[in-house]
Amino acid sequence: MASTGVDVTRSNEDEDGLVEQRIKARAVASLPGKEYKLEAETELRIEVRSVSDAKVILLQGKAEIFGCELVSDKVVDMRKRTTCAVFTWHGCTIKIIPESVYAYVSDKTPMQFYVNLHEALEQRRCKAVENNTDGPVTMVIGPTDVGKSTLCRLLLNYAVRLGRLPTFIDLDVGQGIVSIPGTIGALHINRTITVSDGLDDYPSLVFHYGSNTPSTNVKLYMTLVSRLADSLRKYWANLPSRCHNGCIINTCGWITDVGYKIIVDAAETFKVDQIIVLDNERLYNDLMIHFGSNAEIVLAPKSGGVIERAQSTRANARALRIKTYFYGDDNSGYTPHVYELAFSDIQIFKVGGPNLPTSCLPLGMKPEDAALKLINVVPEKSLIHRILAVSAALSTDEDIVQTAVIGFVCVYDVDVNRKILKVLSPSPGALPRHILILSDLSFYDIPS
Fold it and tell me: Does the keyword ATP-binding apply (predicted)?
């Protein structure tokens, strides 16, 4: 077996916390469950299908989930309707609780291919440090449900385990990894990403798009992608050491027609030097022709454990992502807050006007101009359940469309007579800004 190039030394943990975790794990391990013995270079694929959560415990050996090393006798919580794969290079024993959780062992895994990708990226990071140049900029693309975000997470985790601080850029407005669906954003990864914690507590740079597909407003989407790229370049220019670490870019699953053009434009905007194509030879060949020697194009296999989701399942995942933003996960105990905002204290806008033929537009206005037009929204009952992004802009003199957002609220009720907007917020107190941007997304699970 080739070396993974990953330092598997455990990170320093607080001793008291580690003791408490192991006591908890031993108590959980005594519960009824099922043990799986994995041979070297095999993986245990787990699907939590039921409405209940599951627990995974490493009893013996060494193993990892998406590049994050498991700690012996530490419980890993898996939420309902989620999947993961526990991989081992040298063999291990895993226990899953409850026994009813669906799981199976497979030796057909692309992990050796993926770790080779990591080693190539690490070599380029070393050269970037040596020559004081930018690190690798890698984009992962492919159809929906081929494991793009999983591969991104794995490459990020392997980089962190070697002491790197890579940047993760999420351009998938349908999934919402960095923030909620309907946004794009970036964050710097300084620790391994666990199955339980995800990325919710990382400081991030987020731009509001407002829909779960780029096709709703292609002009706005590409404008925000360009704005995000410019913001990151300015940040890296002030912190040269950050640029050596490179970045990993996740993308949407729309890869045909206009979707293909969006991918190419985004790759050129971020000056990508490597594109990993998952499970699509035609896309791989098209990109080889387009980029030539300007970028390395790699065709990578998808994992056999990847599950294709129905549209309803994806919609439920989006709803759960938004719910997690307001309520946290099942173990966090977050309590959202409901409070009132006077109409006079806020301004609500929507980005993008209706698609009209050129003949119906004002003199000198182009159809693409309407896509970025800021439209004032009058508060009314139709806003109930809609998501509002809180803009970082201090006044309407700023470019609100291209200004980052600092959070979200959900409209709980609208009292037109009292001119009061009641909103659900993850934190108490007054809003830090008064300019709000209307999203197409809604959230219905709010307290009565």
Answer: yes
